[in-house]
Amino acid sequence: MKTKKQPNILLTGTPGVGKTTLGKELAQRTGLTYVNIGDLAQEGQLFDGYDEEYQCPILDEDRVVDELDEKMSEGGVIVDYHGCDLFPERWFDIVFVLRTDNTQLYTRLEARGYTGKKLQDNVQCEIFQTIYEEAMEAYSKEIVHQLPSNTPEDMEHNLEQIVQWTEQWMKDHN
């Protein structure tokens, strides 16, 4: 892999924790490229069927990885997705798992139109720290960090922390 001038960052967590809001704002503040995996899959039709139970398309993980691999090797990418074990470990310099209080998450997902099993499963996913554990298994523990994402103040604090980290990474690597 050639030397990158900018880091790659993974923002992950249960749907509704604020990954997209954080990722878009972070891209504006750092100049890094923001990639929402759901949007990328939609644009490139990178699906492998449809999940009737959850009423959503099934991601073709191999095609997603193929689509992004070159861009990731260049660096400077913020990836936003609710899963993380599909991505190669070498892609990311740091992984942030956003965490939200279950009551708040329930309200956010309900507002998005989630109901029944889809709503319950996503809230349970947050309660059981599923995404955090997935990240800890998929990546070196030193690069995985949990961030609270309950309030606008949390969001601002997270932005400041990640911007600072990014600036330090760029100083250390250039």
Entry keywords:
5-stranded parallel β-sheet; single chain; 174 residues; two-stranded antiparallel sheet; alpha/beta; globular; Rossmann fold; 18% strand
Question: Could you characterize what this model shows?
Answer:
- This protein is α/β, with parallel strands linked by helices and 174 residues long.
- It has one domain: P-loop containing nucleotide triphosphate hydrolases (Rossmann fold), CATH 3.40.50.
- The chain has 7 helices and 7 strands; from the N terminus they run E-H-E-H-E-E-H-E-E-H-H-H-E-H.
- The chain has helices at residues 19-30, 37-44, 61-74, 102-111, 116-127, 130-138, 152-173, and strands at 9-12, 33-36, 47-51, 56-59, 77-80, 94-99, 144-148.
- A 5-stranded parallel β-sheet has the order 2-5-1-6-7, sandwiched between helices.
- The mean pLDDT is 96.
- InterPro entries: Adenyl_kinase_AK6, P-loop_NTPase.
- Residues 36-59 are annotated as: NMPbind.
- It catalyses: ATP + H2O = ADP + phosphate + H(+); AMP + ATP = 2 ADP.
